[in-house]
Amino acid sequence: MAYALSLRHVSYTYHSLKQETPAICDVSFDINPGEFVAVVGPSGCGKSTLLHLIARLLPMDQGEIKINGYPLAISKEKVGYMLQKDQLLPWKTIYQNVILGLNIQKIKDPAAYTKVNLLLKDYGLEDFRNAYPNQLSGGMRQRAALIRTLALSPNILLLDEPFSALDYQTRLNVSNDIGTIIKQEGKTALLVTHDLSEAISMADRVIVLSKRPGTVKSIVPIELSCQERTPQSSRNSTEFKDYFNQLWRSINDS
After folding, report:
1. What's CA 211's distance to the chain center, in Å?
2. What is the value of pTM for the model shown?
3. CB-based burial of residue 253 (10 Å sphere; 0-12 exposed, 13-18 middle, 19+ buried)?
4. Separation between Cα atoms, residue 141 and residue 153, nearest integer Å
C-alpha cells in the first residue's frame, strides 16, 4: 500500500532582491492513510512552508512529494487546506459558505450536496444552515470551515494552526471537535502547530523540526493509555506529561 503522503529530501529557499533565506532543508517523512500527524518546531523553522509546498502553493527547490504514490506534479488527488482563520464570507449563509468550493469547481453531483447536508447534521450545524457567520461562535465557524473543506472529499487535510485565533477554552473544545470529526471521517491529516499539548492530544505521531532551515530532528509516536482516545481525553492520560517534556527538550536542545 502506498503512503498517503511521502516527502523525500524536500528543500525550499525564499528569494528576495537582497538575500536568500533557506526555510527547510532535506525534509523526509511518510504518513500512512488515515493517520494524523502533527509538525512542531521553533518559530520560523518552515512548518507552514511545508504545507504550502504540499498544497502546490510554492514550488520545491529540491526533493519529491508523492500523494498516494503519485508525484505531486501529476497527482490528481485532492488536498484540503484549513487556515488559521475560518475565512467564511460574511455576506453568505453557512450553507452557502460550505458549498462554496463545490460551486467554484462547478460540481453538480447531487451526492456531493447530500454529503454536505449529512455533515451539517452530524456535526451540529443543521439548525444554523441559514444563519450568517457573525451569528455563530468561533467554534461553530471552524466546524463550518472544516465541512466546507470536507465537501470536496480531499484525500489529505492540511491544518495550518486552525485554532490559534480562538481563546484558550474555545480552542480546547474546538480542537476536540475537529480532531474527532477528522478521525470519524477517516481522513489523513497533517497539522502544523506551536502548541505541544495540541500536537500530543490530536496526533498519532509528532514530527519535530529543527530551527531554520528546518529539517526533521525527531519523529515521536504518541501512544496513550486512555480507553477512547479523543483530544480531550488524551490530555488526561498518564503519559501526556512525559510526551510534553520529551518534545519540549527536543525543540529546545541546540
Report:
1. 21
2. 0.89
3. exposed
4. 19
**Residue 141 contacts by C-beta under 8 Å, 6 or more apart in sequence?**
86, 88, 133
pLDDT in the model for residue 1: 67
Q: Which three cell numbers mark 176? A: 476536540
Q: What is the pLDDT of residue 52?
A: 94
Label the pairing between strands 156-160 and 188-192. Answer: parallel
| Residues 54, 72 contacting (CB under 8 angstroms) | yes
- Could you tell me where the DSSP H helices lie in the chain? 47-54, 94-98, 100-104, 110-122, 138-150, 168-185, 196-202, 231-234, 240-252
Indicate the residue type of 180: T
Mean pLDDT of 108-118: 91
pLDDT tens per residue, range 114-163? 999 999 998 889 999 999 999 998 888 988 988 998 888 888 999 998 88
Q: Which residue has the higher pLDDT, 76 or 117?
A: 117
Burial of residue 189 (CB within 10 Å: 0-12, 13-18, 19+) is buried
Residue 228 has pLDDT above 70, yes or no: yes
Instruction: Give the other-Cβ count within 10 Å of 39's Cβ.
Output: 26
Asked if residue 154 lies in contact with residue 185, where contact means CB atoms within 8 angstroms, the answer is: no
